[in-house]
Task: structure prediction
Amino acid sequence: MAPIALTPPTKDDESFTVLTEHGIAEALRKNAPSQLKSASLTGNTTVTPPELATKSPPSTEPQLPQLDASSVQCTYTSSPRTVPAVGSPEMASQKVCSDHMIQAQWTSTTGWAAPTLQPYGPLSLAPTASCLHYATECFEGMKLYRGHDGKLRLFRPNLNCNRMLMSTNRIALPGFDPAELLKLVVKLCATDGAKWLPKDRPGHFLYIRPTMIATDPALGVERPKEALLFVILCCFAPMGNMSSGIKLLASQDDMCRAWPGGFGYAKVGANYGPSLVAQGEARKLGYHQILWLFGNEGTITEAGASNFFVVWRNKESGRLELVTAGLEEKIVLDGVTRRSLLELARGKLTTGHEGLEELDVVERSFTIFDIVDAAKEGRLVEAFAAGTAWFVAPISQIHFKGEDIEVPMVKGQIGAYADVLRNWLKGIMWGSDGMEGHEWGYVVEEEE
Result:
């Protein structure tokens, strides 16, 4: 049989340069058409690639059922689980989950089935399931807070749900309406919140883990045809204070967490597994985490799985700056805590606050050598990591190429800017310090 003649695409061909965008738009058209213009590679609003919008004929395929939280089917447990005591090994193990979980099945031929709220328990997967072989898995990290005013709150949960859609798009998992995912998260929190975060535990939280995995049992390397969305609530120990600050070990030449054109900006499992070897070795050496660098220039990306911030005095202008890596290269995660800190800083710190010197808020590429120079020249003011897990964690030391960079913490256990930013976030999350009604605090009406 003669080979089929094909004209290879050229680098000038628009369809050749946006293969990932094409794939995302096509998948959304089939699985979540209402989200076609809201899910981008960065998680921000974007338009459909113009060649898809103008050249592709309207789809004649019947629309498959979408994810619909209003159709959730509830089966409540007959074997309630025990809530761990505060300070117990069970609480600290990060293995104990609440009584119930959310599940929703999807297939390429039937679309989304009705979600279920059901007793927490193990999943059933074929040994050939796509997620076990090809890292077709993504997740979110959120928290349910018991406020000091007695209310249950989520923190900006719409941002997590929007980002999860972006992550599923990136690894060929089905699309969905983020608002429907949020409703399912709220349903689980409302169901289990009263028992697992009782009102006599203000200031505590449960960790929320929405996850999507490809369950397709076909072993071929292809876009999955079956997937499972699930949401669980897990007990975590209360956030402790790092009295001596976080110590970071700058990554070595044989390490790379993310790269331009990759998937470092998405919250996919493939970002985490390869980092665990280096993380374990860093801890053996007495460091809490890796400060991930990229390229020969030593571009700073993230601290462990958290965004990295530095406050320094600009060498040219002499002005104070709060600096963190930008999102343009798609190397770092658009963290919810990151975004919130930047918005708070721009709104409250650029004109000074209660004796603090005003500063500029900057998102741009910078390197470990910039930090070395700032430390040597006395321009380094403070540094901290930020994320859902670490919250706002002050950094006291960075080890790079055999030398320790000592990072000031003017308030003893934290820098002044990290301290005020952390307190603002705490007030919103736990409904205290005049922040009870802040729009970022999503109040969950718990079921009795």
About this structure: The chain has two domains: 16-77+89-238, 246-414. The CA atoms of residues 38 and 45 lie 5 Å apart. The two ends are 70 Å apart (CA to CA). DSSP finds eleven helices and 19 strands in the chain.
